[in-house]
Amino acid sequence: MAYNRVEIAEEEIEKQRKYMAEIRDMWHAIGRVPLACIDTYGCQQNEADSEKIRGMLSQMGYDFTDDTHEADVIVMNTCAVREHAEQRVFGNVGALTHTKRAKPDQIIVMCGCMVQQPTVAERIRRSFRHVDIVFGPHVLYRFPEFLHKVLTEKGRLFSVAESDGAVFEGLPTKRDGGTKAWLSIMNGCNNFCSYCIVPYVRGRERSRTPENILKDLKDLIAQGCKDITLLGQNVNSYGKGLGTGIDFSDLLKMANEVPGEFIIRFMTSHPKDASEKLFKTMAQCEKVAKHIHLPFQSGNNRVLKEMNRRYTREMYLDLVKMAREYMPDIVITSDVIVGFPGETDEEFEDTLSLIEEVKFDALFTFIYSKRTGTPAAEMPDPFTREQKQARFERLVALQNSISAENHRAYVGTTQTVLVDGKSGDSVYNLTSRTNGGRLVHLSGPEELIGSFTEAEITDCNTWALFGKVKK
Known about the structure:
- By secondary structure, this protein is of the alpha/beta class.
- The chain has four domains: about 10-160, Rossmann fold; about 175-285, Transcription Regulator spoIIAA (2-Layer Sandwich), CATH 3.30.750; about 290-410, Transcription Regulator spoIIAA (2-Layer Sandwich), CATH 3.30.750; about 415-470, CATH 2.40.50.140.
- The chain is about 35% helix and about 20% strand.
- It has 13 helices and 19 strands.
């Protein structure tokens, strides 16, 4: 699907920089450092957006706290993918009436995918009157302007108009530190899976230019990041509409050529766009992790068609076979939905059999969550929550046994791992990741944090490996 790529003009970003400077000067004149609290829900893309929010707040003179009672500004960056996440957000924002009552000048902000839904925005407007600013993902770059307006004029501000979205560059970012980093290469989605709200709240696919992506990659490497994940709702669609002739595989090659010691990951890949070129590129690029997250969602063709996934079970299995031909040791993880409307017991068995055939290293498993405004929300759904829960437990038990079996194959091997932090355990005091993203609890000196090392794998369980630094 072609689309018109729209990039926010530099003049608009410069206007936001001026608002940032004015807010910083306001606080400086008062003579104190304000505090901000950021609460992020949902996917890695939301985490990346929160890094931009932190960056803008830092430029506006704010420091950060986890204590909502201390904060001058509270930002809740929300997710719309599942109902449970929305209910948790509503519960948490409701509790902020107490902090607002104790600190009347506190500004409460709700942003992200959840608030882009008209029904949610209206609920906030009517029932959560202590919330001051509400804005969707498309206008994240205007956060300084919104905050300035509420600080100087008071009142409430909502900016949730429907939009196809745009690319914006030049915003400051502030990471939590460490070796890992998220790097957005595109926003939005054109796929319209029948169960998914994301295309409606994040807009159409729009890719960033290779030049801007590579600049950010080099900056992250200079900051000491060594585990960098390229983000998009469907990274395999990268480049469509840019007019550069550069697709995602080409971008991986370009990233692989950047000097430095680091590993490149990416997510998420849509099976309908995964290709032999992608697998061949992954195999050839030494800095690209030999891991692919390839959501299959269901093992039954009728259900896949109702989901509007645009591939079949057979096509998916062929992709897995091809990936393993190019990379025999590739780690494959996936997403699966249990209890899609109308899914029968027999159709669910097809999902189990696909899992048994592929033997995924790990699965992210979900019971179907109805999203108002999506086609699936209108489909007949005769099965009860209890029936779906029983299926879910069978699926989890199957995958846990496969994960444990896969992990046992690592015991006795030596793996190159990136040590990324402390575990808090007295024996296995470090955490690390293999090239394929498997968690390794490691025994070794703390000065290894932030570096690659060789680890002897000595034990495992369903969810992780255990090892020691090889001497």
